[in-house]
Amino acid sequence: MPHQIYPPEPGDGELLSELLGEVHAFLPLLDRDEGKKLLEGLVWHTSEELGKLRLYSGREEAIIERVAAETDYAALLKLHEELNLLEMERFLNFYSVTALHENCTWYRDALAGRALELVAAEMPSPPPVPFALISMGSDGREEQTLITDQDYLIVYSDDGGEAADRYFQEYSRILVERLAEIGFKKCSGGIMPVNDNWRGSLSQWQRRLHAIVRYETEDYGKNMMDLIVLSDARFVAGDAELAGKLVSLIRALLQDYFMALWGMAKAATEMKLALGFLKRFWTEGSGEHKGSFNLKLLAWAPLVMNVRILAINQGIPATSTVTRIELLEKEHSFSANMARGLVAAYRILTKHRILLQIKVIKGIQNDAYYLNPYSLPSDERERMRQALLLIEDLQKTIHTNFSIV
By the 8 A CB rule, do 178 and 115 touch? Predict the structure, then answer.
């Protein structure tokens, strides 16, 4: 369950210290009554903000309790929508990327887990062997936002034979439909257990993974995308021990087969950024998105991808981008300044991705990807430009470390 009260975002600690320092320096300039009024005002304002946070958390927990008992898929969809609206409202009040990630991941796990239970009840018999649902993508990194789709795989025990294969084929078919009914859009890339490549016993997964890292299948591009997706695998529901075996296998293979990781690193360092002449923003020169750039593809995704490469190379098991950065700093892959800058870069890019999603949800615009940087205040725009420059430096570092020509 998420913490009820959220600390300042990582990277905001220095700002908070500066603000407290300014208050402390200002107090000697005031007489006793003025100082008392200032401090009382700060206490009142802080208490009001904390009260809002407690209110949101209480409302969210009450809805999750209803999810755990609900048996109707249409009702679960409404609860999902309520949770999304509540999280959107919270974000617009506090702009906390941390809180939004944690809460969206928490309640989507609860919804997915409930769907697993209900689908099992729809089947003519209980599951023949233990199984687990594992998420990937943003959900695997515990970085869920307001708009989501299905990025799931299913793994089950080996001792069920062909009967288990048939059972989970049908189970997965129903599960994907039920998840769509409760607000999880079907993955446009087909990363869903209804597809054979994303469902199997543990030994089937083992053979499949070895074929991918050894490039034994012909489609190099698909191999690469599958590796990238699998590298963020995270247990969601079902048998945790079984899921842990598969996730550990994925991590071990990515480290053992350097050429597979090298291929991922090459793809990551070649990702384009929204930087143009003299390190200014590059934007579309014509068409529907003139003056804008794709925030996901040309900023956010390159950051996530390149941090992932270093984390895998260093054997860091975490999937969250910010946690990966923090652990890379601890083992000296990043300096403190670099780590702080990358966390700040992730926060600002994700903040604006979420704001774009909110505009789509509210019907203000149809697209959740394109951002006009010149629509931002000058200081916010410069922070975003600095984020892109830092990602460019990260790409150069990985390019050198992996000897990519």
Answer: yes
Distance CA 143, CA 350 (A): 9
Cα 281 from chain centroid?
A: 25
388's CB contacts (< 8 A; 6+ apart) are 273, 274, 275, 281, 299, 345
Of 143, 149, 168, nearest to 158 by C-alpha is 168
Other beta carbons within 10 Å of 37:
11
User: What CA–CA distance (Å, rounded) separates 87 from 36?
Assistant: 36
The DSSP code sequence of 196-243 is GGGEEEHHHHHHHHHHHHTT-SS-HHHHHHHHHHHTT-EEEEE-HHHH
The pLDDT tens digits for 314-366 are: 999 899 999 999 999 999 999 999 999 999 999 999 999 999 999 999 999 99
The DSSP letter of residue 275 is B
Q: What is the DSSP letter of 364?
A: S
Task: Give the tens place of pLDDT for each residue, 154-191.
Answer: 999 999 999 999 999 999 999 999 999 999 999 988 99
Bridge partners, residue 370, by sequence: 294
Instruction: Sort strands 293-294 and 234-238 into parallel, antiparallel or unpaired.
Output: unpaired
Q: What is the C-alpha radius of gyration for the chain, rounded to an integer number of angstroms?
A: 23
Looking at residue 94, what is its pLDDT? 84
pLDDT in tens, 255-269: 888 888 898 899 999
| The two three-digit tokens of residue 397, written as one number | 């570092």
Contact at 8 Å (CB) between 394 and 342?
yes
Cα separations (Å) of 173 from 65, 139, 199, 292? 27, 21, 11, 39
Distance CA 149, CA 168 (A): 21
The three-state secondary structure class of 156 is strand
Contact present, 217 and 223 (Cβ < 8 Å): yes
Q: Phi and psi for 326 in degrees, rounded to 5?
A: -60, -40
Residue 293 pairs in a beta bridge with 371
Give me the sign of the Cα torsion angle 265, 292, 344, 60: negative
